[in-house]
Amino acid sequence: MEAIEPLDTPDAPQPPPGNDAYAVFRDRDFRLYLVGRFVASFGQLMFAMAVGWELYDRTGSAMALAMIGLTLVVPMALFTLPAGHVADNYNRKHVIVVTTILMACANVGLACISGLRAPVEWTYLCLFIAGSARTFLWAATASFLPQLVERKLFSRAVTWNSSAFQLSSILGPAAAGFIIEHDGHRAWPVYALNALAAIVCCTLVSLIKKEHVVKAREKMSLRNLLTGFRFVFSTRIIIGIISLDMFAVLLGGATALLPVYAKEILHVGPAWLGCLQTALPLGAIVCSFVLAHRPPLQKAGRALLWAVAGFGVATIGFGFSQWFWLSFLMLFLAGATDNVSVVVRHTLVQLLTPDEKRGRVSAVNNLFIGTSNELGEFESGAVAHLFGRAMGNTAAMGAVVSVVSGGVGTILVVLMIAWLWPEIRKYGRLDAH
Q1: Is-contact 75 130, C-beta < 8 A?
Q2: What's the rounded Cα separation, in Å, for the pair 107 and 112?
Q3: What pTM was computed for the model?
Q4: Is 201 within 8 Å of 164 (Cβ atoms)?
Q5: 154 with 146: CB under 8 angstroms?
Q6: Which of 152, 225, 333, 348 could be joined to 81 by an S-S link, Cβ 3.0–4.6 Å?
Q7: How high is the mean pLDDT of the chain?
Q8: Could you state, in order of their start, the residue ranges of all structural domains in the chain?
């Protein structure tokens, strides 16, 4: 066996930065950012599981779950353009800190509402406040990340950032389910922990040394607000991949109906619901580690299309499943395929956009994707509610119809996008200029 030279030997060959899976971790600011976002995401995913469980437990209505998505999408529609302008014209790090504090305050309100068993209508008010803050947070966060690392390392940074989010998605719902199960089915401790996580995130982000310096602040005019839309719609590859993800998530999202599946089809409690919600992120984090230890995708466009089609197939499988572990497996596969879409889309959107427009383009991207997430939850809940009524007021049957039809719709969307945007099929190496 040949001897291996010590790592500190000057003449030792070093792997190219683009092929070193861990090179990005040598950057202190990226480490602070990654840990801060992980802690914040951990709290947010606990919150998402808790609010869905509590509302369905208190109302027994799929429409109550649908209203969560509708409540969160309204501020996104109202504030996306101002959020992009703020991200491009003010210090992005400061925007992240302020909006995270606002989200902490909203969760304190949710904890009070839950602990006092106040009317559920107050829950939607807090969700609206949190959704408003999140709209500004997303635009600032997405456009701040490219400033922390070199371009050649950016796809790695996106992959590890996605891994951190997915890890929090595994731990967060499981922790929330455990807390609710062992605390008399009360959700207020989860909201309180989410508020604490937000404060920790603020502290870590404030320690980042890199600053977003605005070269020339622009006035908030309609023309400047629409810059992001003009850039997105003039760049075919970007509008194509955003449209693909938007319609796939709008039709194929089954997560809003997990409380219905847990209670009515799989017959499990909140702890097992938390376990079920870890399947999607577990699949995504396994996929992230595979991507991180491989060279950047050579045929990123084709990989994106196949991944979204696989997401649709897995969604159909989950919709028909009545066995817990088969449902878990289908969600695992859905998470793995969806992660490919996330990495490709986010990398291309950020690298193809000039820095002075990144905030506004990120806001438009968030509007498309966030709207599809929240409206997808509303669509899934509404379809389940309507078909449940039509089939003898059976929530289980309505949920199955909603999920399966959404998976079929996702596959049809992939075929349509591949035909309308052939440049997506032809796109090559992910980190190419």
Answers
A1: no
A2: 9
A3: 0.65
A4: no
A5: yes
A6: 225
A7: 80
A8: 22-212+220-426
